[in-house]
Amino acid sequence: MNKIKNILSAMLLLALPLAFTACGDDVEYSPADKPVNAQVYFPTTNGATVDLSKDKTSFDVTLMRAKTDEAITVPITATGGGSFFTIPTSVSFAQGVDKAVLSISYNPESLEYDAYSEIKLTIGDESATTPYGMAQYVFKAGIPAPWTSLGKATFSDAFLFANKYSVELQRNDLNPSLYRLVDPYSEGLTKEGFTSNGDQSPYVEFTY
């Protein structure tokens, strides 16, 4: 038994220097290379839905970049939108400026109300993009049907709220039997102590 203990003790003593040597080794850290290109991207402030107007003929999409030391022009490829939109094939950044605007034109008379088209924009030069921002932007654009405000209505939801709340009531100008309440839940969720407003619809529509 003593012989076995001695063998185990010797093995432990031999292992200790190896353990200390491993712990003392320097770990080499190789930082990621800092991008040297313009790093162009679509910011998240561009909305997933773009509401257009019968009174206008164009709307803007914003692009940003990190490196601004020189003026550049970046190609843009576009799909979707049918024949309703005219989309430039490039966007230009002025020297020292980190923001550029892509202006997309349309004929308001050719667009029907509530008929939204999906459009996908892509930065055509991968060497100008960045892994830290979106090189592609997908959204829907269209003209929402007009609504007229009729004043305030009383809203209640017995499942959620103990109280009633005053909210805006609107009527659809194209379909007079269609009504909607504007953002009916936010006030109640806040006043009655809910920790989050969630993803509730900004409108509640009904036919009368």
Quick gist of this model?
The protein is mostly beta strands and 208 residues long. 14% of the residues lie in helices and 37% in strands.
Features:
single chain, 208 residues, mainly beta, 5-stranded mixed beta sheet, 4-stranded antiparallel beta sheet, flat
Mean pLDDT: 87
Strand order of the largest sheet: 2-9-8-4-6
User: Helical amount among residues, as a percent range?
Assistant: 10-25%
Q: Please report the total strand number as a whole number.
A: 13
> What is the H/E order?
HEEEEEEEEEEEEHE
Distance between the termini: 95 Å
Low-confidence blocks of residues:
2-8
What class would the helix/strand composition place it in? mainly beta
- Give the biggest beta sheet: 5 strands, mixed
Number of helices: 2
The backbone outline, from C-alpha atoms, is: flat
Strand content: 35-45%
Write down the Rg. 30 Å
Give a structural overview.
This protein has 208 residues and is mainly β. 14% of the residues lie in helices and 37% in strands. It contains two helices and 13 strands, in the order H-E-E-E-E-E-E-E-E-E-E-E-E-H-E. The strands form three sheets. Strands 2-9-8-4-6 form a five-stranded mixed beta sheet, with no helix packed on it. The chain has a four-stranded antiparallel beta sheet with strand order 1-3-7-5, with no helix packed on it. Strand 11 and strand 12 form a beta hairpin. The N terminus is likely disordered.
